[in-house]
UniProtKB/TrEMBL annotation:
Keyword Acyltransferase among UniProt keywords: no
InterPro entries given in the database record: Peptide_deformylase, Peptide_deformylase_sf
Cofactor: Fe(2+)
Enzyme class: hydrolase
Species of origin: Postechiella marina
Cross-referenced NCBIfam families: pept_deformyl, PRK00150.1-3
UniProt-recorded name of the protein: Peptide deformylase
List of residues binding Fe cation: C105, H147, H151
Enzyme Commission number(s): 3.5.1.88
Length: 196
């Protein structure tokens, strides 16, 4: 089932999410619906807060990035095959010199800005079977994970922009929260005026 994606302005996107246990109700259905929702919106990641649930859960599928011809065959291959579920994730280390990449977000359609992040992360998480992992990721995979991880921390990529950039896009963000935007996937706008 395709779920509506929550737009910027909804308080759930600013809350630090809470851990879940392996007996979380209908977790398999939730994961299936989240993947379906993400693919329907042509995303590479989706966090539970983006569908209105303040829980520490996100998923990633970087296959769409594998088509980038500027990447090596090895990079393309690793992106094409990377599909994961992250439950109760915790980034324990970020390393390297920050690099810029133009990020977007399904909760903030049509806004893309350069965000600086460290290139290498170490993350602890549970997978969909509640098996624990500690792994190191780098490059674009690390970038997508960091972006989705921020969601469960109550942080949006726009929060990481300079004060000037934030001022320049403030009106656009306000319009998105009011539903004054055309999107080709289901969304829920927190500040939309109700139709009578």
């Amino acid at each position: 089932m395709i779920l509506p994606i929550v737009a910027i302005g909804d308080p759930v996107l600013k809350k630090k999410a809470i851990d879940i246990t392996k007996d979380y109700p209908k977790l398999d259905d939730l994961l299936k619906n989240m993947f379906e929702t993400m693919y329907n919106a042509y995303g590479v990641g989706l966090a539970a807060p983006q569908i209105g649930l303040p829980i520490r859960l996100f998923l990633v599928d970087t296959a769409p990035f594998a088509d980038d011809e500027d990447l090596s065959e090895e990079e393309q291959s690793s992106l094409k095959d990377f599909k994961r579920v992250f439950i109760n994730a915790k980034i324990v280390k970020e390393e390297g010199e920050e690099w810029a990449f133009c990020e977007g977000c399904l909760s903030i359609p049509d806004v893309r800005e350069d965000v600086f992040r460290k290139p290498k992360i170490t993350i602890e998480y549970f997978d969909e079977n509640f098996e624990k992992h500690t792994e190191v990721f780098d490059g674009l995979i690390a970038r997508v994970i960091q972006h989705e991880y921020d969601h469960i921390q109550g942080v949006l990529f726009t929060d990481l922009l300079s004060t000037l950039k934030k001022r320049l896009i403030k009106g656009r963000l306000g319009n998105i929260s009011k539903g004054k935007i055309d999107v080709d996937y289901r969304m829920r706008f927190p500040n939309a005026k109700k139709k009578r």
